[in-house]
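tool_call: predict_structure(chain=1)
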Amino acid sequence: MGKTNNRRWFALTALCIAVFMSLLDSTIVNVALPTIQMELKASYTELQWIINAYTLAFAMCLLLASKFGDLFGRKKIFLISLTIFTVGSLGSALSPTALTLNLARVFQGIGGAGMMSLSMTIVAETFDDRERGIAFGVWSSVVGVATALGPVIGGYLIKVSSWRSIFSINIPIGIIAIIMTFKFVDETFGNRGEKIDWWGMSISTVMIFYLVFGLVQKETHVNWTWGNPHVWPCFLVGLVLLIIFIIIEKRIKQPMVDLAIFKSWAFNGTAIASFCLGAGLYAYFTYMTIWMQNYLNYSAEQTGIRQLAIGLMSLIIGPIAGIMSNRFAKRWLIGGGLLIISLGLFEIVRVVSLQVSYIDFVAGFIIIGIGNAIVNPPLSAAAMESVDQRFVGIASGVVNVFRQLGSTFGIVILGLILSNGYQNGIAKYVANLEVSKTAKQGIINALQSGGPVSNKEVFKVVQSYLNHLTNGSQLAQQLKIAIFKAFNQGYIQVLYVSIGIILLGAVVAVLTIKKRAK
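tool_result:
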């Protein structure tokens, strides 16, 4: 390896700092949206794109970053990605309008994709078999903690400063990460002399854009059907481009993605397991946060602190899981970790009620954290070990794309399930409200159109109407309970679907991830 032991761990520290920042910025923004809306006078659509611009750019560039790293040097492209992310953070902090903020978020997404995708490959190349599991364990712990800490750090920074600080804090940290990467990370290449497959790169990027954009369109317009002219053409274009991409990659001598990697059942298994992890768990976190903030009435900061039960388990158990991945078959660790996650989700299903408190579901959080900590290190390692050494870089990109697509797909599917359960619940529970038939239907229509996320604003409007009635306060309380019951009906369905997706990933992992590539 040519590195002293201390130097390679300093390299891992630099990589983890970068990954921490890229993931933090995918969750930290949520808590700042209300203050951003007030200061920049942003519309609802512009607010949505503050999140979606990052997600879209991130997904589009994962494969590109991996391939450019193989061709031109992983350290070099990682440093460029880190610099782009830091500049994007500066642009976000200084943005005078919502439009400039969205454009800066695109830069952050481009940089974040390179940092995330290449960090996995660099870890695999930096550490030998004995230490690689531990390194992936540490890396995975950072991933878990970053996801949980977003609302906590965001809430604190907004309290003591302003929304701009959630971006400006990345600048000094980014500079430190750049210096450490430059000093401690060694340069590695994949197929250095390979000819650039410009067609493959262009088509794959546009393909991923349309697939993710179609999901984003569906997510941001819950009332649109899959047959909406703004939705289905995106998937059709994405599918056509996928077919064209496969045809081109099969015909050229030096393709962007050598389709031979998909001949490995173990690699396919890791990709599917990554998709299921993203769709079943990481997508679920979005609706878990809505449950805690909108219905259990925790602030963003309080929500983040309580979610640390998940992140801290990843921090504590991740390195241990990494050591275990060197000693036990990875398929059993991945399958077992996913099974534990499903048990944690089931524990939350068991306690969902109108009177639920944190002490009731903290056990579910801890179990989820343990499962997440166990599954990530061997999943990352299995992805690298399931393909020939020359495919390690692009394999990292493909697995990350599957995880990101899974997360985006899960957010849409789980959102539709939550919305459907909520709307059926509203019709069911508001029917018992003692108001006129016309008023009752008006309340049902208002709450259904508002959806499970915007219920607080709708409730305030309805409450002002009810307050004019003789028993208005009593009716308002009954309505509040009806809304909570309706949400719980949809939320329980979300949990069951998440459990099913996670268990599917566990079964696929156990059946396919059997042996490493030579």
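agent: The chain has a mean pLDDT of 85. Proceeding to next step.
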